[in-house]
Amino acid sequence: MTTWTIGDVRITKVPQMTWRIPLSGLLPEATPAAAAVRAPGLLADDGMAEISLHGLVVEAGGRTILVDTCAGHDAGAESVLDVVRQVGAITEHHPDVRSAAAAAGWAPGSIDTVLCTHLHFDHVGGNLAGDEPAFPAARYVLAGDEWAYWSANESDDVYASVDSSVRPLVEAGLTDLVDADHTLTDEVRLVPTPGHTPGHVSVHIDSGGERAVITGDVAHHPMELLAPEWTMIADVDAPQAVATRRAFVDRFGDGETLVLGTHFGGSSAGRLDASAGTWTRV
Q1: How far is the C-alpha of 43 from the C-alpha of 32, rounded, in Å?
Q2: Is CATH 1.10.630.10 what the domain over 3-281 is classified as, yes or no?
Q3: pTM score, two decimals?
Q4: Are strands 9-22 and 139-143 parallel, antiparallel or unpaired?
């Protein structure tokens, strides 16, 4: 497990899956030639990129918060695995984040908050274990705008996973529908970052004079932060997603903020210096 400390806050990556695919499969404009001009050295010469699927456990203010539960075992997850096997290579695969977290010392009952950055299957698929909450002591937190949209429009997006992974929790009274700028603890608060989905949120951590941000799907690869105008195939509202990425880069591209990507491969963290146009992996 990889761990970072931000002041009094500890953040730990809990991996579920890693794979290698052509980055242009996610970002059509990210050809090897274009990437070599825009961000030399960031993408392999063959255009392949390592993509990760992982949760992040944030320990802050006496709370244990799991940011995203990754993929479950539904048809959406299996179809994506089939595509990955055809065009790339899966290099790591744990059954689910609940098992991976338990192996790292967080029993399911020790997680008191599950934060869903958005409601795509690879971020909420592990919310349930069978018909029961995967984390029985947790409140499941999600933006009210995100729920309002997908609860009525799941059929509009092949990646949404509401009926199988979220609606049962809402109906059981286990969710907190919050504003997109909701404060979780003194050090942890949400940041509205719409575009990839209508109510998408990122997570800002500020403690002891240090700060970090968990992207959610604002970006799936650091290339998106260096070329924020490039489109991503799964963004629901592409113009809004571009505007959000640009604002994200302006806010967090100071070269000091630790940026934790929920799909970034390798260490999954780095620092963005927008003025220099550089990404430094940490």
Answers
A1: 7
A2: no
A3: 0.95
A4: unpaired
